[in-house]
Specification:
Layout (H helix, E strand, L loop, with lengths): L2 H5 L5 E3 L6 H10 L12 E6 L3 H4 L8 E6 L24 H8 L8 H10 L5 H12 L15 H15 L4 H5 L1 E4 L2 E4 L9 H15 L45 E6 L5 H9 L3 E6 L3 H13 L6 E4 L5 H11 L5 E6 L6 H4 L22 H13 E10 L4 H10 L4 E8 L5 E8 L5
Parallel strand pairs: 1-3, 6-7, 6-9, 7-8, 9-10
Antiparallel strand pairs: 2-3, 4-5, 10-12, 11-12
Helix pairs in contact: 2-5, 6-7, 9-10, 12-14
């Protein structure tokens, strides 16, 4: 090659013909995937790009880099035309182009190239996305992917379509259509809020409280004889660790416990509570009709619909009247649980791309992130029994504001805040100490 001519371009020059440089070729190809080569200059292709994020750490210059590499039929990555990709730019790869570049003549998918395309687009947890999308589309795991794998062409197109959507930052849970939450597998669909790992810890705290029997001394109902005294799981009966249902013959039947979840979403909290606690019945409400349908669907799928009722009600002024009409007077619940929207308006302006696909109704809590929390605490004494409990999952530092609010009232007592798995105290435990007039 005419090295002197290249040096006159006054641009950094890297010769990628060396085997040690092949990873750079792969990342550059992934970054520019879809831009087909239209000209070869004596079997050479110029690719102007900035390296993948990992390669950037080794480069001092922020200017575009001119890369020269020999075009060879043996090269696993197909050569691409000239183009410039800037640092930290969001990439959007046309599906048809991804299909041409990532699939060889034998129909095999180049998983490394697909993974690199995700990395180049800034997709978080690429390994998890690859594993889940691959398993969702094919009959075997990604660990079994090899030249001997038989891949249906339709399945390959579906896989690459989902990959493209993931590159466009559609949440993985929406793409695969379901996700695990504690012992349950729940259906997911946009724009219903996707349950977070912290909420699993939230349920654990409530379970510990229930298992210590604090709530039962306030129960007024008798557990129906038709309900087995076991923890329901998936098929409606059976301890998830035991795997079978066991009747509690000859044992004293405890009073039934009734709770209300405000903002059910997928039903993750309500369905986990009723599936893991015997004799617990739930009511779930949500202002989003899509969430109401999804909670109902998950309850039916898990055969828990006889333990939970779902209604389309909010907690604003109009909704609070509906809640009081349903749960007021002699029909109050033993405790209320909610993971309300708690992001501030400022936080909403700087969301990661995935959260833009989720409903703002489930995310935004007003200027301070506490608008819905105040609505819940306002109506709670009218629908929760005296000495009943209010459980809230809120944002960082919100517990301090909630405690100050409760201290100024004579009908609520802030008991304590509990930590999530990262040690952040974001679960508020509040007691109703005076019935609403």
């Amino acid at each position: 090659t005419n090295t002197n001519k290249k040096q006159r371009d006054n641009k950094p020059f890297i010769d990628l013909r060396q085997p040690s440089m092949w990873p750079f070729i792969r990342h550059a190809a992934a970054a520019l995937v879809g831009r087909r080569t239209t000209a070869f200059h004596h079997h050479y292709v110029a690719i102007r790009t900035v390296a993948h994020a990992r390669t950037q750490q080794c480069l001092a210059s922020a200017a575009p880099i001119t890369v020269w590499t020999r075009h060879s039929r043996q090269t696993s990555t197909r050569m691409l035309s000239c183009g410039t990709i800037h640092r930290n730019s969001a990439l959007s790869t046309p599906l048809a182009s991804l299909d041409r570049v990532a699939v060889d003549r034998d129909g095999m998918v180049d998983l490394e190239l697909v993974s690199s395309a995700m990395h180049g687009a800034g997709v978080p947890d690429v390994d998890v996305s690859m594993r889940e999308l691959y398993h969702h589309c094919f009959s075997h795991s990604i660990d079994e992917h090899s030249r001997k794998s038989i891949l249906n062409r339709t399945q390959v197109k579906t896989f690459l379509s989902l990959v493209q959507q993931r590159i466009d930052r559609v949440p993985l849970q929406y793409l695969v259509g379901s996700w695990d939450f504690r012992w349950l597998t729940l259906a997911m669909c946009p724009p219903v809020l996707i349950p977070r790992p912290e909420t699993e810890e939230f349920v654990s705290h409530i379970n510990q409280w229930l298992n210590h029997g604090h709530v039962h001394k306030h129960g007024q109902e008798t557990l129906p004889a038709s309900v087995p005294c076991v923890a329901a799981h998936k098929d409606g009966l059976g301890d998830p660790e035991q795997g079978s249902a066991q009747e509690c013959e000859g044992t004293e039947r405890r009073a039934a416990v009734r709770f209300l979840e405000v903002g059910s979403g997928t039903g993750a909290i309500s369905l986990s509570l009723v599936s893991e606690n015997p004799g617990v019945y739930g009511y779930a409400v949500d202002v989003d009709m899509t969430a109401v349908h999804l909670t109902t669907q998950n309850a039916q799928k898990l055969k828990l619909n006889h333990r939970i009722q779902v209604q389309h009600i909010g907690v604003d002024d109009r909704g609070s009247e509906s809640l009081q009409a349903v749960f007021g007077a002699d029909n109050k619940v033993d405790f209320l649980v909610s993971n309300p929207p708690y992001l501030t308006k400022a936080e909403m302006a700087s969301l990661q791309p995935e959260l833009e696909f989720e409903s703002s109704l489930a995310l935004q809590g007003g200027d301070d992130g506490l608008d819905v929390v105040w609505q819940i605490l306002q109506v709670a004494p009218a629908i929760v029994k005296c000495h009943g409990m209010i459980w809230l999952e809120v944002g960082v530092d919100h517990c301090t504001d909630i405690k100050r609010h409760c201290d100024a009232r004579d009908d609520l007592m802030f008991l304590k805040s509990l930590p999530d798995q990262y040690g952040v105290k974001r679960f508020a435990m509040i007691q109703v100490v005076k019935e609403a007039k």
